[in-house]
């Protein structure tokens, strides 16, 4: 956690954090990582974390955060924004379907 916060504060690291505030209270956050890829000459933007306070879900906070990420990625010349979610996360997936196109990619992982 300490390293993540240091990366978010470091200007030379392509990890960014954005917050949504209401009445001086943090109600939502998102973290993104910009990275090169082998299929394009410009970077990708991976939306790694999105969290909105349970008490104010369905009030467009998540939508505004993702749209902000889209704008930042576009301003930085990224070729796409992408993210993953759990297959059974039905409410989030219904929401994401309004903002992006689900791909047919299946993720495999081996933790080291």
Task: Find the count of extended strands (DSSP E, 2+ residues).
Answer: 4
What's the CATH H-level homologous superfamily? Gcn5-related N-acetyltransferase (GNAT)
Contiguous runs where pLDDT drops below 50 for at least 5 residues:
none
Number of domains: 1
Mean pLDDT: 92
- If helices are DSSP runs of H or I spanning 4 or more residues, what is the number of helices? 3
Examine the secondary-structure arrangement and name the CATH architecture: 3-Layer(aba) Sandwich
Question: What is the spatial order of strands in the main beta sheet?
Answer: 1-2-3-4
Taken as a percent bin, the fraction of beta residues is: 25-35%
The computed structural class is alpha+beta
CATH topology: Aminopeptidase
Largest sheet: 4 strands, mixed
H/E series, N to C? Answer: HEEEHEH
Task: Give the C-alpha Rg.
Answer: 15 Å
Oligomer: single chain
- Choose one word for the global shape: globular
What top-tier CATH class fits best?
Alpha Beta
What does this protein look like?
The protein has one domain (2-96): Gcn5-related N-acetyltransferase (GNAT) (Aminopeptidase), CATH 3.40.630.30. It contains 3 helices and 4 strands. The model has no long low-confidence stretch (mean pLDDT 92). A 4-stranded mixed beta sheet has the order 1-2-3-4, with helices on both faces. It has helices at 2-9, 61-75, 90-96, and strands at residues 15-22, 25-35, 44-52, 80-82. The radius of gyration is 15 Å and the shape is globular. The longest helix is centred in the middle third of the chain and has 15 residues, at 61-75. The chain is an alpha+beta fold.
